[in-house]
Amino acid sequence: MIISGAIIFALLLIHRLMQRVSTEHLAFEQAVAERKYDLAQSYLDKMLASDPKSASAYYLKAELEIARDRPDEAMSGMRKALELGYANPPIEVLRAILLARAGKFQEAEPILIQAYSKGESPKAGIAEGLSRIFLGRLRLAEASKAIEAWMQADPLDDRPYLWRNEIDERIDSEPDVIILNYQNALKRNPTNFKARLSMAQLLMKANRTDEANAEFAEYHKNDPDNVQAMVGLGQIALLKGDTESAEQWFTSVLEKDATNITALGELAQIEIQKGLPESACKHLQKASELSPFDSEILYKYSQALKLSGDSGLARTVADKANKLKLDQDKIQDLRKAIVQKPDDLELRVEAAQWLINHGHEKEGLEWAELVLKQKPSHRSMCQALVEFYTKKQDYGLANYYESQLKGSGVKP
Q1: Greater confidence, 395 or 120?
Q2: Helix 227-239 vs helix 261-273: angle between axes, to the nearest 10 degrees?
Q3: 92-107: per-residue pLDDT in tens?
Q4: Structural domains in the chain plus CATH codes
Q5: Total-model pTM
Q6: DSSP letter string over 193-247?
């Protein structure tokens, strides 16, 4: 059979066009992997200019927007890819990544587990989604594996190192292990000052004073008005015996934030050392009013009251501090029990209810949220939240959780 020159030319043209598309696709993937999102967008623009109805280009657009953490734009790209005939399963994987980020673990988990087992893309997004799910459900062994896969899939991302710290902190890893995770995160993202601050505080607790001071100073240099960095520098000064500098730091903190609990407590401790228990009592009374469930502040307050001659109130405050210390031990026991039995939903409910009822509302509500992500209409959890928000006179949220109970067919 003789093939005409026109057909040969057309075939060569198609071949070259496919080569060019493939080259741009690879360049796009490389740019995303290197977090050069503007460059990736330029490759994507070229693909769409070459073929405005390219379903694969719109799929890549969705992938890029997920990397940029722009869920609405990602969903738009996914819808367009489907309209143009792109296969549904890969789109479902991208959707599952977004579901995991939105806390809809039950819907996302089976899709992401299957995608991970098949080695599908985007590998980093899939591993991130699974890490989020397993951490959210405290399945720490599985979370650890997913985080390791995430590190390998995206070596430039600082987040997996920070998420691994969530595991290491729960299992009481050595401080050096946690510090190393922070250091690895900061190598990848030196501007993550929240991580720098957390590392500095941990270095201080580990008695690595000079390293802690350097990190607090670096944070302070980049954000001179940040009171947490100033508090850290004051605490380091105290550890080094420089009481005068420490007092200046804590006074400066209170000028910026008169409600800073740590600065109030540390300044009071300096005043006690200087023989000024009455001044210390004023600072500690304010701190205890601002943070009534802080046993350490209450213990310091009881000591200052005793030194100032008010032994009766000192005993009352000391008794309250001891009770709160027992509460904190109970919280630790609950946390350990949950880590040991991550699939025991009722144990989480017990923890959430106990925390809410004993004044630890923030942490209790976080546990409640985790319960409801797994079982949105959990009877006793929803009922506890109805009662909590009714007492708070937040009738909107109280009615919402009551509707959750009715929607599940369970009477509140």
Answers
A1: 120
A2: 30
A3: 999 999 999 998 898 9
A4: 169-250 (1.25.40.10), 258-333 (1.25.40.10), 344-407 (1.25.40)
A5: 0.75
A6: HHHHHHHHHHHHHTT-HHHHHHHHHHHHHH-TT-HHHHHHHHHHHHHTT-HHHHH
